[in-house]
Amino acid sequence: MTYQYHPFADVFPLLDDDDLGTLTEDIRENGQREPVILYDGKILDGRNRYRACVELGIPAIFDHSKASNDEEALRECVSRNLRRRHLTPTQRALAGARLLPMFEEIAREKLVHCGLNYGAKPGIDYRTNQKPGAPGPQASDLFCSLCQALLHN
């Protein structure tokens, strides 16, 4: 079976040919040490491990994300890739630019779920654009912390 990459994973760059070759050799000699993580049947993390296993003609080891929704899956993907990989400042900036529409979409979906819209409505706090007691803007909080990490690394 061939697996597709999840759009969240595609935010981050794949290894270049030299680094992929090094990873492939390591997996040939030592085996796959970390599983490939699936979310919604697509690879959320471990695209390079998966590519190396395909290259070697061996079955990859898989595990499933514990995320119960897209926001959690996006958080997991960012956590597994932003600081744990040796990305250049340009690669981090590009990832941030690619992540922005994903965070905006999640925030939009949360607003719709809460019955909120982009226009002013009675009973909405105009400063937060939320009904009293509505869930907090976790997606925007995550994006702010992502931006800080991108700028300070």
Overall tally of domains: 2
Strand order of the largest sheet: 2-1-3
DSSP strand content: 5-15%
Helix percentage: 40-55%
* N to C succession of SSEs: HEEHEHHH
- Terminus-to-terminus distance: 38 Å
Question: What composes the largest sheet?
Answer: 3 strands, mixed
Radius of gyration: 19 Å
Number of helices: 5
- Molecular shape: globular
Mean pLDDT: 81
Q: What's the number of extended β-strand segments?
A: 3
Low-confidence segments? none
The CATH architecture of the largest domain can be given as Alpha-Beta Complex
Class computed from helices, strands and strand pairing: mainly alpha
At CATH level 3, the topology of the largest domain is: Conserved hypothetical protein from pyrococcus furiosus pfu- 392566-001, ParB domain
What is the C-level CATH assignment of the largest domain? Alpha Beta
Question: What does this protein look like?
Answer:
- The chain is mainly α and 153 residues long.
- The protein folds into two domains: 1-68, Alpha-Beta Complex (Conserved hypothetical protein from pyrococcus furiosus pfu- 392566-001, ParB domain), CATH 3.90.1530.30; 87-153.
- Helices cover 50% and strands 7% of the residues.
- It is built from five helices and three strands, in the order αββαβααα.
- The protein has a three-stranded mixed β-sheet.
- Strand 1 (36-39) and strand 2 form a beta hairpin.
- The N and C termini lie far apart (38 Å).
